[in-house]
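Worked example (supplementary).
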Amino acid sequence: MEETSNALVIFGGTGDLTKRKLVPALYNLKIEKLLSKEFFIISVGRREKSTEEFIEEMKLAVKEFSRTGFDEDIWVCLSERIYYYQLDFSGTDTYLEFENYLCNLEHKYNTKGNRLFYLAVSPEYFGIIVEKLHKYGLANENGGFKRVVIEKPFGRNLESARKLSKQITHTFGEENIYRIDHYLGKEMLQNIMVMRFANTFFEPIWNNKYIDNIQINSTETLGVSERGGYYEKSGALRDMLQNHLLQLLALTAMEPPARLDTESVRDEKVKVFKGLKIYSDEEVTQNVVRGQYDTSVNGEYVAYRDELRTANDSETETFIALKVEVENYRWEGVPFYIRTGKRMKKKSIEVIIQFKSLGKSLYLNELNESVPNQLIIRIQPTEGIYLRFNTKKPGQENAAIPVSMDFCQNCEIGYKSPEAYEKLLRDAMLGEKALFTRWDEVEYSWKFIDAIGKAWANNIPDFPNYKANSYGPKAADDLIRRDGREWWNE
Ligand code: BG6
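After joint prediction of all chains, the assembly is encoded as:
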């Protein structure tokens, strides 16, 4: 296995992401023997704490969040390479001292000047930190690579994303910028391309001649927990749709790339983003539904407006459902229905491909209907593929009956897919960019999102409009029923 040799500097080391995702991912990479001896981690945070205290906190985090449980020996091996450094992100001299500290460790671990900076901070610090790294020479490419991983959201709209992009590109150059979208690290998202392009029986029918509609669902049972402060500024539109769900749409709708190299795949995804129909204000009203959760029927969950750090008259959406059109030859006339929300009845991420009905088919079911074929790509919590097709109902009659083939990838004994962050952290260390988003993908997705944001800005929503632990507002059901279809809730 290829090994990396680098320093990993995590800004936002005391935050939730570091605790829940990054350090547990590094721990699992250690188990898989995918971290080199020439490697160390500095967690940079604004809070005062010692390295020992930080390591103790991370040990608890790994025990709680690691997908493989906890092994003391492995943890000791990893924790010997973890350091904590307190830094005022906007400070000046502090960066000079920090560089000294970093250089000493680089010498000790022989990381050859290779630095991966991970910005796991609140978005308003992205620009400031990058600017300081530039100003104080920490990102100078004099020996060793200097890369930066940026968490989402990349901007708040097209304008701020452009400004941020300019700022970051000035320091790192596009080739060293890793815009992370953790959905792309999920095993089954990577599987979408394999399924489509490695199977003779899928690719020829993947178009408007055979597909009736596609649903992309990502529903969560959790609320915003302690992230109210961040969420108030983003909402479901920017937190989920602009990045994760549009990426999922792009992988489902893209043309086959000429090759599997990073840029060929990204080129095809960009074409999908370019093809998204940009809605007028009126079309937004017709095709996009927003929602915010209220208490649950039994009062078990509080309303969004009563969550920590949210306004009690908040207009932030925790749910969005929309009908999307991809304007190209392959998809003309095929609606994509996308739905995402917090505090919903079940946790699941799925892509549902609904094929066209055969209409007056020779074989109908007992209700005299022709049941269309369906393919479901299950991404979370179950990973797998479900295919529904018709067969003869056993017995004397010639009735058709729908049956299914269900492939469950993570039901296989002992199989646990790596967490998305394991894959992505390792890729960033190795310089693999295929699962990170390129600037033009971000740019086109903002164009689509901004049209919705602009239309919403002119209307005050009637919130809250759905109960926690439900399937979202009634208007979302009306949106799809208007077209004679239903959301897939099974
Ligand atoms: C994050 C969002 O990017 O993705 C969260 O900020 C959301 O609000 C999370 O809960 C969902 O990720 P996953 O992997 O649990 O589907």
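Two points are worth noting when inspecting this output. Residues 6-151 form a domain with the Rossmann fold fold (CATH 3.40.50.720). The mean pLDDT is 93.
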